[in-house]
Amino acid sequence: MNPVVVIGEALVDVVDRPDGRVEHPGGSPMNAAVGLARLGVAARLVCALGHDERGAVIRAHVGASGVELDATTIDRTSTAVATIDGDGAATYVFDLDWRLDPVSVPAGTPMVHVGSIGAVLEPGAASVLDAVRRRAPGTLVSIDPNVRPSITPDAAAVRSALAPLLAEADVVKLSDEDAAWLWPDRDVDAVLDGLLDSGATVAAVTLGGNGCALANASRRIVVPAPRVEVVDAIGAGDSFTAGLLDGVLAAGSTFSDDLEALAAHALACARVTVSRPGADPPRRDELPA
User: Fold this and answer.
1) What are the tens digits of pLDDT across the range 229-243?
2) Phi, psi (rounded to 5 degrees) for 157
3) Helix %, strand %, coil % for the chain, to 5?
4) Distance CA 198, CA 15 (A)
5) Burial 191-203, CB ≥16 within 10 A → b, else e
6) Following DSSP, what letter does each residue of 64-120 receive, concatenated?
7) How many other CB atoms sit within 10 Å of the CB of residue 64?
């Protein structure tokens, strides 16, 4: 099988903690690609990197997990300075250069996953949408908006940029915080309704420590999160995404039938990630049997 094509930013998370500053490879799409690869799903990451020390760290990180890398060269590798609060949640300040060479999505690609800054920030966002629209028939599309208001503060502009991608998407996952920022007048059920009306076959909203809500055309569920001692939440949503997409690909054309299984697998992946520092998604042998 050809690899899943993941298109979006790869950067370095510069994390300020009470005990000092540390750096980890990051970026929502990069984390999702690594998460997929660690679960045994072939993944190709289309991103932008500099030929600098931080770029070398990212190349080594994704290579160690078996991710195929397709990187447009930029002047310096992007960063996100993350500050962790007492509950382990992170806030970010970005220094980002987002542009892409033309993106190829070969026939036989099982899925294209896009999202976060890469889906909405120009000039690279135009290349993302073009790749999604030029995919071969039968290639699924997944999107995780993973909004970053410090980079794209105009919610109306972000909704406008996301609309054509959501119209193409088979699977949509976002957090409750994303949903509240994008559609402040909607509760979670109304957000799920809107995503399904846009064309999604499965829509998911993560609810932090309260688990997640998943919906298809005929039903919806809310599944509580497994108990865990949280170290930090960096990359938790991306690990959830990787687990969700792994479940979708494993189920094939019937992927919307068992929402409980999709939710349980995605939450198990996120549980491992929040139990350790940085965006460090699990390998399959770290998950419950």
Assistant:
1) 877 777 889 999 999
2) -70, -40
3) 40, 25, 35
4) 36
5) bbebbbebebbbb
6) HTT-EEEEEEESS--EEEEEE-TTS-EEEEEE-----------TT--EEEEETHHHH
7) 12
Residues in the chain: 289
List of domains in the chain: 4-281 (3.40.1190.20)
Q: pLDDT tens for residues 248-261?
A: 999 999 999 999 99
In whole angstroms, what is the distance from residue 64 CA to residue 259 CA?
Answer: 31
Q: How far is CA 219 from CA 130, 212, 259, in A?
A: 32, 14, 9
Distance separating alpha carbons of residues 181 and 188, to the nearest angstrom: 12
Sorted by sequence, the CB contacts under 8 Å of residue 285 that are 6+ apart come out as none
Cα 147 off chain centre by:
10
pTM: predicted TM-score of the whole model, two decimal places? 0.93
The mean per-residue pLDDT over the stretch 99-108 comes to 94
